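Researcher: I'd like a structural prediction for the single chain below. Treat it as a standalone chain; there are no partners to consider.
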Amino acid sequence: MTDLSAFPITGRWPATRPDIIQLYSFPTPNGVKASIMLEECALPFEAHLVNFASNDQTSAEFLSLNPNNKIPAILDPNGPDGVPMALFESGAILIYLAEKTGKFLPAGARRYEVLQWLMFQMGGVGPMFGQLGFFHTFAGKEIEDPRPKARYVSECSRLLRVLDGHLAGRDWLAGDYSIADIALGPWLRGLRDFYQAGDLVGWDQLQNVPTYLDRFLARPAVQTGLNTPPRP
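Model: Treating it as a single chain, here is the predicted structure.
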């Protein structure tokens, strides 16, 4: 049997099947990128809930795998050259799993088209949508100064218009379904459904983004991954 005892995280979240990928996550827009990708690739994995309510993400065991205390993180017992691979950052995990399986990241010029839209999500959509959620839904709504929220509303609206224009005549961001779509879809769902910020950013005026999100959510692997690991 594979021995993962060298990784302290397995002391807090023991592996029932140490021979398969271990996922440490919570079903947030970033967290479900990894679970959706694992489901789409049909890779066997074991999901461990990192419970924010008990600050699991700041525990010594979790920090031993991700010193940045953010989910998701994975531990692959069958990493490159047969050596276990520990990895954090959702974008890096998507690229790793795509290269491991040969799925959802094409070769040649199309590879870089996928990667540019992945970076569009990582550098723009994720941070901006997340900040809007903070100021609209969470503690930031108690701040009386309207300028922070207005800034993020404006930038999120702009990013959605960029995306809406690009999706005209396209089913997916870069040709076939790819890791760029797996990265972006959960954030669109989060903005519309969890943050309930659609009215703020002009969701109903978008021509292509809503149907794109519907296509994404219709995928069986997406539906499973969105609830993995289950919320407490």
